[in-house]
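Q: I'm teaching a short session on how sequence maps to structure, and I want students to see two examples side by side rather than one. Could you give me a first protein with its sequence written out and its structure tokens following it? Keep the formatting plain so it prints cleanly on a handout.
A: Of course. Example one:
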Amino acid sequence: MKTIDKALKLLSYFTVIQPEIGLSELARMSNYDKAATRRFLVALQNHQFIEQNEDTRAYRLGIGFLIFAKIREATTPLESIIQSSLVRLMEVTNETAHASLMTNQNLSTIGISFPNRGMQAHLELGDVLPLHSTASGIAFQAFSNNSNINNPTHKSYIKGLKTDSTTLEDTRRRCYAVSTGIYCSETTGIAVPYFDATATPMGAIAVATPNSRLTEKMYETFSTALIRESKKITSSIGGQMPQSFILTNPVP
């Protein structure tokens, strides 16, 4: 089992920004020796989960994931449901709407809908959203029972930065999180989690806007739209909203 864990760990380093990684760099990033890294890569290649660029000799994710992703989405849809919500959020707010999912201790961006305007908040699919400096991360923390999240050993922990209890309490009270100028100095994010069947957060949906455009009225517009879409996503995937969330803000 540890061998499988180690092999799968290599996959977590590939992103939209870094789609190809060489053997030496993968060994360095994973803290494995090169021989072991090569063995894991060969095993993954045998099942088409990893492939090698013949020109650069660097590795990238393989086509083996495609069929599993199609089966997962066809039988238990998530991406299509979330993307529909993001389009609605973008249309209501005219700002960048994005969604994240917690996997392997990382809150990673899985969907984005950009408005058709010149100045907009920007991010990439696959971006990891730090739990302690983004609205999505704070929203996820506020409703999570995972006491390990605020621990320096957690992957999304930022050295020297923790989310204080007052911020989490405020987020739970109003049912949405706000982060201004921490992750990105010129952007404000507002986020709400969505939940699984045990009322545990799976990820978050958020709206991000340049600070120069933000008004007090927009907080109400954004949060109302986010809570509405969180409930739609949660219901559509067979999830359950926490009772405190429903009582605090019974948005239809």
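Q: Perfect. Now a second example for contrast.
A: Example two:
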Amino acid sequence: MPSRKRYPIVMLALTTATCASLSVGCAGQSDSPTPRPVATDVDPEQATADYWLNRPAVASVTSRHYEHLFNACDHVLRQRYFGINRSDFRNGVLISEPLISKQIWEFWRQDVGSFLQQLNSTLATYRRTVHWTITAEEDGEFVATPKVVVERYSATPRRITAVTRYTSAASSADADAPIQSPSLQQVKRSPWYAVGRDEALERQLAEHAERWMRGN
């Protein structure tokens, strides 16, 4: 039967081994750690709407009647609850107001192209802006192409020190900054940055416009 006097020696050995392993682990962690990726780690050029608008369209709708085609584009936007920001009939440009994208339980809305993107807009805040462009072809046809720019919201959290300021927590201004005259305020970076195009929604918009023209 082993003697009880050996237990302190065994415990000392185990303690020494544990300390040695912890010191090795700490030494490994002292090296330069790899920074964790964040949502805003994107190419600044790709974070602009112009970058995505310059990419080719994936869907279009054609007609020989310019006014009918323009009205179809306008109708499709309003049917999907997009407000109109710019309606330029002469130049064939129709741009919607940015619309906060639907969440998964908002089944009546039709402003997101796929279920996966609905899930994304439920977990984070996204918005979509529709750009219709109508051009004339040499054969007399008019072609309308939709492009939907998707933007994500990202704002730095700020500490709220007064109850009266909680309503401005989501604004671009610093909640703790003193009120300044407009001439002294600096231009703030927009919390919205572009993340891509909703090509599935673009195809749906073109199909919707074509169906409307056939029925009217």
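Q: What should students look for in example two?
A: Point them to this: The beta strands are 61-63, 84-88, 93-96, 99-100, 126-136, 142-153, 192-197. Also worth mentioning: The longest strand covers residues 142-153.
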